[in-house]
Amino acid sequence: MGKIICTFGDSIMKGVVSSEKNIDGKPLYRVSDNNFINRLGRQFGISVKNFACFGSTTTQGVKHIDRHKEDVAESDCIMLEYGGNDCDYNWKEVSENPYVTHIPKNPVDIFVRQYSALIQKIRSNNGNPVIMSLPLIDPDRFFEYLSAGLNRDNILAWLGGRTMYLYQWHEMYNVELFKMARRLQVPIIDITTPFLEFRNYSDFLCDDGIHPNEKGHALIAEAVKAKDLQ
Length: 230
Description:
230 residues, alpha/beta, 5-stranded parallel β-sheet, two-stranded antiparallel sheet, globular
């Protein structure tokens, strides 16, 4: 693995976990000292510049790359992790009117186009991009999280009566990452399979059903280690 790694992405790349809730029942988030990036840094003695941001999508990613061009050029490897927020919806709007069309923050075609542009931008700055797949989500937990304080029945109606649709939608974006990696010939780190190998993979997720907990970050660290990015 290179001596300097530069990372861009959302809260998963940032190392955010939740371990308790506030008085409204919403998760309280913090950056874990044992997130997978820190684990890799300690294990290999590498320097990591983590520019990931909570809530970030590929739209913000393009701006972040432009802002850190020098860091990109000076790094041995640029790791990217996007998708969980791109595919997310404005659940308040869905709750208020479940019988109209709603679109995610970035529809899948825009997500792919913007992610591809990110990769090309990194390469044009002499960087070596590596993308990460998405970890699994627990649709039941995620539904409880996203519907808190909203009209749960309306949201469930919009989902077709099945929380499983949340999993399907999220996985569709994940599949596009593997297709994109093949098309653009960019390395991809599969952090999906390590979760699938466990019968109850939810043990590796926070209560919100979407963020890996510290056990999940340990799984991700092993997947990155096995990829050997040297």
